Amino acid sequence: MGVKAGLAALGAALCVWGSAAAQDVTLVAREGGIVLNGTLQGYDGEFYRISTSYGMLTVEGESVICEGPACPDLVAPRAEIRITGASDIGAALLEPLFRAFAADRGLIYEPMPADTWAAVLLDPENRKELASISFQPLEPTLASAALAEGIADLKLSFQPEDGFGSHALAMDALAAIVAPDNPTPEISTIDLAKVLAGEVTNWAQIGGPDMPVVLHALDPGTDMQLALSARLGTPVATAVLHPDQTRLAEAVARDPWSIAIIGRANTGPARRIPLTDSCGFPLLPTPLAVKAEDYPLALPVLILTPKRRLPLLTRDFLDFLRSPAAQEVILAAGYIDRSATRLPMTADGLRLINAIQGAGEDVTLADLKRLVNLMDGADRLSLTFRFEDGSSTLDATSRDNLADLAQLIAAGQFRNERMVLAGFSDGSGAAPANLALSLERAARVAQELAAIAPDLAAEDLPTVDGFGEALPMACDETAIGRQLNRRVELWLMPHFPEPAPAVETP
Fold this sequence. Notes:
CATH 3.30.1330.60, D-Maltodextrin-Binding Protein, domain 2
């Protein structure tokens, strides 16, 4: 089905998503002097949207008086929250998140009969319907078209897209799964990539028994499969295909010589097989490693928004997703929440071992001592920053992390602590250049933070430092490994300002 045909079918299936009829109104400025005549296109409780002789205008409701029989009540009208996109995410998260949102806002949540999932939110005093919510799973191209055309309001996705806003919802981690009785203890990222590319067809090629590898995968057009192909830089080889993650996991569990990639939250009866890299670095999908995207197959779970103003209640829901109540729902659903997690640097001795074993010839003992001295007594926060390939622009997840950091600082979460943005590079190139580059990246993050949070005092902002290639997360022999190593971490350490000198009284 083509995009136009698919959208036509979607529009027919979702006729409940239609818009209200436009009507003429007059908006008069409360301070006088300005009168706007036009056709009312919508009112979300905060802003009027009207078509005028000057074009389409958005006018703040508190600044004007609406005249005419078409003027709405000065309360937020019934909102439509139309969601599309990845079916696995929608099935797992939408219902519990909207239940929690309703409870948090003191509203009544009421499910509605529908082929997929639908619900309404009601005013508890008069049971007036405040919002209708619906979900229509669609393959990525159709979902993006629906969002662009105004047929949908939000899209669930694993990848950001040009032309849409992006809101980080949760994190997932792709994992390699095999049958419970498969004897393979672990698999390297290089061997896994060869399996997925069809270059390895027998387990004996990667140290296993002499049995054929049976590759299973999701349908090529699903969100997760597209995200995996983007991460690999190539489509997955011919495989036994499945429409969703549940059936994929069940099929792999039944086949002793099968292997597949699946989301961490959906491994089902299959066994997750640990990843390593070619240098022996263990790549574990711990919550901190996934949040920091130190795990190579970490995936952000995103809500994409159109470049148009959404209804008040929809924006309120997006704000709610950052709350502790929403994060608890995400955890309960098997995904990894986005709340900032901290870990004492001393609890991760493996990183120090890796630093010593993996350090290049140009990394000196003095470099390592400087690193260890700063790590001593410090905690690492899961907020980590990386850049788009070949760019000085922070990637989508890092931009969300930066907004979270600004919010945490403004709330006073790090009082009596010194914050350090610690930059790192991969091992490509000369050590002095890598050291300078790592410091430059840390400084760039600090500049971006100051730009989005201009009200923060200079003393509340992190300092910056750079360590070049002194603390690798993975082997530099692969593109994924180099990407993991190019990062800016956030470290916290106790800091108690000197007390003001006592003032002597005469």
